């Protein structure tokens, strides 16, 4: 099942994603926020790398991490993925989660490092974290989406204005002038 097989709930007054763009958006290397419920019932969240594959979101964490314990206990989570550049887009995915032991070297962990940091940066990241990962162990988090909502403001802003909005962030003038 693909993410686009679920009904998409727009967040009015902003427009919904088109199906093809939604798949491209979640496949890009973006940092997501994983939200879950702590033991005391309070909310918590953590930034996380992910891989979107076959309609599921795959993530990694240390076996003894707070989020791993909370997700194992609760069995559900929310993943928010956003574009931090104007005119802004975001997808919020609720779903059920499963955890399974994962290899410390290679596999998804290596794929994530390369996807987010490139080959050179990914290799360096793995060297930097391999010892700690062997001590703590890793688990793969798999989130199966049950609800999808969000907005895509690219649909209401033309390509020229989008380029200007992104460019103005880098101009050496006060943002308020523009």
Would you give an account of this structure?
There is one protein chain. The protein has four helices and eight strands; from the N terminus they run βαββββαββαβα. 33% of the residues lie in helices and 35% in strands. It is of the alpha+beta class. It has helices spanning 19-27, 66-74, 107-136, 159-168, and strands at residues 8-10, 32-37, 43-48, 51-53, 56-62, 76-83, 89-102, 138-152. The mean pLDDT is 92.
What is the name of the CATH superfamily?
Answer: Electron Transport, Fmn-binding Protein, Chain A
Along the chain, the helix and strand elements come as EHEEEEHEEHEH
Overall average residue pLDDT: 92
- How does the major sheet shape up? 8 strands, mixed
Fill in the CATH topology: Pnp Oxidase, Chain A
Question: How much helix, percentage-wise, in residues?
Answer: 25-40%
Question: What is the overall number of helices?
Answer: 4
**Strand-residue fraction?**
25-35%
| CATH class call | Mainly Beta
As for the number of domains, it is 1
Task: Name a few traits of the molecule.
about 180 residues; 4 helices; single chain; Pnp Oxidase, Chain A; alpha+beta; about 35% strand; eight-stranded mixed beta sheet
Offer a quick outline of the entry.
With 178 residues, the chain is an alpha+beta fold. It has a single domain, classed as Electron Transport, Fmn-binding Protein, Chain A (Pnp Oxidase, Chain A, Roll), CATH 2.30.110.
